[in-house]
Specification:
This protein is α+β, with helices and mostly antiparallel strands. The chain has one helix at residues 68-93; strands at 4-8, 13-16, 19-21, 24-35, 45-54, 61-66. The chain has one domain (4-88). A hairpin with a 4-residue loop joins strand 1 (4-8) and strand 2. The radius of gyration is 16 Å and the shape is elongated. The N and C termini lie far apart (34 Å). The relative contact order is 0.14.
Length: 94
């Protein structure tokens, strides 16, 4: 589980802390999720994943750009789970 730095339920923004995978501490990511619309559509959510890598000589972090592939996978997972929850809620009310 990635720790969260900020959650704005009214603005639809979730931002994580920097997170390094336990198996590879030389790379870390930060995730920003923006809910742009209340509708469950692909353009209703945007995920940005920022990456940093550790420089061995100085042990400092340097920007490694964005991970667009991971961002797309996270968007798909979020939308899929939201659809499952909505479908479950609709089934319970009938």
């Amino acid at each position: 589980m990635i720790p969260l730095a900020s959650v704005d339920t009214f603005g639809g923004t979730i931002i994580s802390e920097w997170y390094a995978h336990p198996e590879d501490r030389s790379l870390r990511i930060k995730v920003a999720i923006f809910v742009l619309d209340r509708e469950l559509r692909a353009d209703g959510i945007r995920v940005e994943v920022y990456a940093q890598k550790r420089v061995q000589e100085t042990l400092e972090w340097e920007d490694a750009g964005r991970d667009e592939g991971l961002a797309t996978r996270l968007e798909d997972l979020i939308l899929t789970r939201a659809r499952e929850i909505r479908s479950s809620n609709i089934g319970e009310t009938n």
